């Protein structure tokens, strides 16, 4: 049995959770907050990062590594194409969204979501980098109807959790959703993916976690 550790507001936790649900892998959840210094956490995730999982073989951290493990260990209900190049293109999309879009936009989250502020120099550098990277993303994203083409894949789990954050953060800080401004009309795509039971479960649990935090 897989145990998934983290909490339901984390986009990377939700990516792994959606993959588990899509692949119909039995799993338990345990709530762990980021940056824990508990030895039991550090034994599975040495930096205290979430998500991480416990498997019958031991612990794994880093969401990209976890996704590769799940796909290899549980080949039923595959989320990668059989063709090696096509599978690599899906992983390319995952890496691009995580590294060149979400990780860049993450510099804005303190101001966008947590009541903090971001230095003007950071805002300017992030804006420049995001505008460039979004244009590059448009060259590999297809939305036909899924982000990588006609099949739902790992890349859709990544996109469903990350693209809304990028849009909300840039709108909060710059007054406009940079994805939409650049011509990435991802809202119909979110609606499509959002009709899947896995996505509905992820959204429902995220809303419950936010309500719990407010209470």
Characteristics:
8% strand, Glutaredoxin, 4 strands, 215 residues, alpha+beta, Glutathione S-transferase Yfyf (Class Pi), Chain A, domain 2, 2 domains
In words, what does this structure look like?
- With 215 residues, the protein is an alpha+beta fold.
- The protein folds into 2 domains: 2-73, Glutaredoxin; 84-214, Glutathione S-transferase Yfyf (Class Pi), Chain A, domain 2.
- The chain is 59% helix and 8% strand.
- The protein contains 10 helices and 4 strands.
- It has helices at 11-22, 39-42, 63-73, 84-105, 109-113, 120-140, 154-174, 178-181, 187-194, 197-214, and strands spanning 2-6, 27-31, 52-55, 58-61.
- Strands 2-1-3-4 form a 4-stranded mixed beta sheet, covered by helices on one side.
- β1, α1 and β2 (27-31) form a beta-alpha-beta unit.
- The radius of gyration is 17 Å and the shape is globular.
- It starts with a strand and ends with a helix.
- The model has no long low-confidence stretch (mean pLDDT 97).
SSE order: EHEHEEHHHHHHHH
Number of strands: 4
Instruction: Tell me what portion of residues adopts beta-strand conformation.
Output: 5-15%
Distance between the termini: 32 Å
Q: Main beta sheet, described? A: 4 strands, mixed
Evaluate the radius of gyration: 17 Å
CATH architecture call of the largest domain? Up-down Bundle
Helix content: 55-70%
Question: How many helices in DSSP terms?
Answer: 10
CATH class of the largest domain: Mainly Alpha
Please give the order of strands in the largest beta sheet: 2-1-3-4
Number of domains: 2
The chain-level mean pLDDT equals 97
Question: Which residue ranges are poorly predicted, with pLDDT under 50 across at least 5 consecutive positions?
Answer: none
At the third CATH level, what is the topology name of the largest domain? Glutathione S-transferase Yfyf (Class Pi), Chain A, domain 2
Indicate the structural class: alpha+beta
What is the general shape? globular
